[in-house]
């Protein structure tokens, strides 16, 4: 990850909506259209060192691209950290202008710890879009199947059947697209390393690589935390609370649940690890979480060390 090496003299705060962007430039806030031409015109007149924005479901893409085109460093901040920063100042009100000012203040105060945006590989972006769409279709298929089994659904059986057939074809096509994408280039090698792990299939490997593209470039603690599988302490004085996993990317837990269940059934590479945890008195759900964390940590190490074959 890249960071600034000196304090920014000016930091632009961008509060982004679908059609407009509120920009804090020093003491003033202006609104521009969320269009490439308007963004480029504004940035051409700016001499800032840093731009800070929030993730907005993709509406920030144009801004980030234009900032990188003109050489302006960009940080896309964690929304929870930004909200905590705003709350720490005792501010309750919320508007586009207020958020833009706070984004600018956040960048000026926290600049040393803010990782700068680096453009991801286009193949990773495509894989992530395919994996997300596949997840949406899987959820739609489950919902449609549940509706087809509801009382009184027999008269609508033809519509359920037709809809499920379309969804199945779409999932099959996405699976083929994922297979093609992960069958060439760097993604092929990363997939081979992941699938060499007993219990990780091609679908799970593709989902992990798409959801955690940072795998192989982190230490084990960062990997577990980013995956949302690190047990965070809950202690105060003499009180030792129950450690819970939280934060991170919760979709990773969904992806790794079935591989962890395989270990619980005595199958796969981590079956012995699960058995030791169960024998030591760990609750089943705690042991499953530990197995998921172990998978992420081991996979991160193998991708880092470029190890395909298991010892």
UniProtKB/TrEMBL annotation:
<dbReference type="GO" id="GO:0006313">
    <property type="term" value="P:DNA transposition"/>
</dbReference>
<dbReference type="GO" id="GO:0004803">
    <property type="term" value="F:transposase activity"/>
</dbReference>
<dbReference type="Pfam" id="PF02371">
    <property type="entry name" value="Transposase_20"/>
</dbReference>
<dbReference type="InterPro" id="IPR002525">
    <property type="entry name" value="Transp_IS110-like_N"/>
</dbReference>
<protein>
    <submittedName>
        <fullName>Transposase</fullName>
    </submittedName>
</protein>
<dbReference type="InterPro" id="IPR003346">
    <property type="entry name" value="Transposase_20"/>
</dbReference>
<feature type="domain" description="Transposase IS116/IS110/IS902 C-terminal">
    <location>
        <begin position="193"/>
        <end position="275"/>
    </location>
</feature>
<feature type="domain" description="Transposase IS110-like N-terminal">
    <location>
        <begin position="13"/>
        <end position="149"/>
    </location>
</feature>
<dbReference type="Pfam" id="PF01548">
    <property type="entry name" value="DEDD_Tnp_IS110"/>
</dbReference>
<dbReference type="InterPro" id="IPR047650">
    <property type="entry name" value="Transpos_IS110"/>
</dbReference>
<dbReference type="GO" id="GO:0003677">
    <property type="term" value="F:DNA binding"/>
</dbReference>
């Amino acid at each position: 990850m890249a960071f600034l090496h000196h304090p920014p003299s000016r930091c632009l705060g961008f509060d982004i909506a679908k059609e407009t962007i509120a920009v804090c430039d020093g003491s003033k806030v202006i609104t521009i259209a969320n269009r490439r031409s308007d963004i480029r015109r504004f940035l051409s007149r700016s001499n800032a060192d840093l731009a800070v924005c929030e993730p907005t479901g993709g509406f920030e893409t144009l801004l980030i691209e234009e900032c990188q085109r003109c050489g302006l460093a960009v940080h896309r901040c964690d929304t929870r950290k930004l909200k905590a920063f705003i709350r720490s100042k005792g501010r309750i009100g919320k508007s586009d202008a207020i958020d833009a000012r706070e984004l600018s203040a956040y960048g000026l105060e926290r600049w040393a710890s803010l990782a700068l945006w680096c453009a991801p590989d286009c193949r990773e972006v495509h894989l992530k879009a395919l994996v997300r769409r596949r997840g949406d279709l899987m959820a739609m298929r489950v919902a449609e199947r549940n509706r087809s089994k509801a009382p009184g659904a027999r008269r609508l059986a033809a519509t359920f059947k037709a809809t499920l057939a379309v969804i199945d074809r779409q999932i099959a096509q996405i699976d083929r697209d994922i297979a093609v994408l992960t069958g060439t280039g760097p993604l092929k090698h990363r997939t081979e390393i992941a699938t060499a792990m007993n219990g990780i299939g091609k679908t799970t490997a593709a989902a992990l690589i798409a959801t955690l593209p940072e795998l192989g470039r982190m230490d084990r603690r960062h990997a577990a935390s980013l995956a949302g599988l690190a047990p965070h302490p809950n202690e105060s004085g003499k009180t030792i609370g129950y450690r819970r996993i939280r934060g991170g990317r919760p979709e990773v837990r969904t992806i790794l649940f079935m591989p962890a269940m395989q270990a619980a059934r005595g199958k796969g590479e981590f079956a012995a690890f699960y058995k030791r945890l169960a024998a030591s008195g760990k609750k089943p759900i705690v042991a499953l979480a530990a197995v998921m964390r172990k998978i992420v940590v081991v996979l991160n190490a193998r991708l880092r060390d470029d190890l395909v074959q298991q010892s």
